[in-house]
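Researcher: Please translate sequence to structure tokens.
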Amino acid sequence: MNSGGWEKKVSDILAAMVDGDNGADGKRRDLAVGLSAGLLAVIGAGILLFAYLRPPALTFSESLPGMDGRSPTAPGIEKTVRLGDLFEKGDGAPSLLPGTWPRFRGADFSNIAPVSAPLAESWGTQGPPVLWTVNLGEGHAGAAVANGRVYVMDYDEQRRADLLRCFSLDDGKEIWRRGYTVPVKRNHGMSRTVPAVSGKVVVSMGPRCHVMGVAADTGDFLWGRDLEREMGTRTPDWYTGQCPLIDGDVAVLAPCGTNVLMMGINCADGKTVWTTPLPGKWLMSHTSIAPATIGGKRMYIYAAINGLAGVSAEPEDRGALLWQTEVWKPAVIVPSPVVLPDGRIFLTAGYGAGSLVLKVTREADRFTVREVKTFGPRDGLASEQQTPVFFQGCLFAVLPKDAGPNRNQFACADPEGNILWTSGKETRFGMGPLMVAGDRFLILDDQAVLTMARATSDGFQPMARARILDGQDAWAPFALAGTRLLLRDSRRMACVELGVSPSAARNMRALP
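Model: Translation complete:
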């Protein structure tokens, strides 16, 4: 501001107050000037005192969440992102070990891993062997595994770059990294998504909804899409948690943009194959698309902010909107829909949302949706962050922090969400992941303490417990390839061996 301008205005105003008209004499004008000088001295002293006492100024950018409470998608802030522009080759080599975990929640989206080799029944005082660890940028992005390679979405704060990183399942050595420069400010972490691998292509989605198709073996850049700029997507306030889904040779995404709810992208060249119109004022949530079959019809189900929809996955009408409802509309949704065998869908969220069970029915080519049951967070099964697992006819989840006396306990419920048992007040977990591995549950708490328990609906039966990493906020989804479990806290990823030693395995096979 020009200080001379406001000093003159104050002087003129005071002069007018004393004068009253243009014919005032010199004494009255001198009085005005004196008053203005005194007042200016007081104001100047006040400004100096404020400058001395005020806190340090914050750098403000309206496009960064946590600074102004808005989504990081304000238009016209950043320049166009050069997707795939960064590449580095490492000295790692792909492993020959068996096992695959090609996407979020595994190949069939159930989060149930079949185990072909024996798993240890206990771990002893040292816990299971940690084979290797790697440092990562702050985040909660889980791993995908295929052909001896581990793929993780990461953010490098120093370079201000999203990076899809590829490691060896053998020893954790980095094979390559492919990325692009994009400004992302830490907001309870940055990266949150799990890549999807199919055949020769791995598809990733970064915090700001930048999508890349990359050659799964070499890291060669194939294509990139910017959903914010192309589709009008509003990135969720804690960045996107949507994990890409690959169906055949098509990557399926839910941009919830200006007029597109869902879209299919050719994995080979990144071109749009089909789109689904946006049914209403729906926004991208933190959930991922759930593949399902209801009434003999294959479909993709997505829980957006303000609505839930089923979209055809059949070749003859892929992308057609089959049904929609707006009865489920929490402000924040992280767990994905859990589709039960009889057409029921279990939906849950944190922040007081509780849960809802819907029933989708098909008659000829028409689908109808009705509510079956609703629960508050204290009344039935609910989850704040992790998607519940449906196993042996029951639902399993860690209850949210607003579940009252049962908060953060591991719980089993019937298909309508009625709780059958919990792990007890002495055994609580946080917002970490859970899965079924063969005949046991694996559950990780916020401090990266891993619990192994019998996978049964008869009650909580713990088998072993050990702390794997020293960090906090261990929220990323698991990946299990063979007997190797990939897990992480907010800063480090670890590969843990859950199998038994060769001699122990021989003894187990010799038992009657």
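Researcher: Any highlights?
Model: The chain has two domains: 3-53, 86-510.
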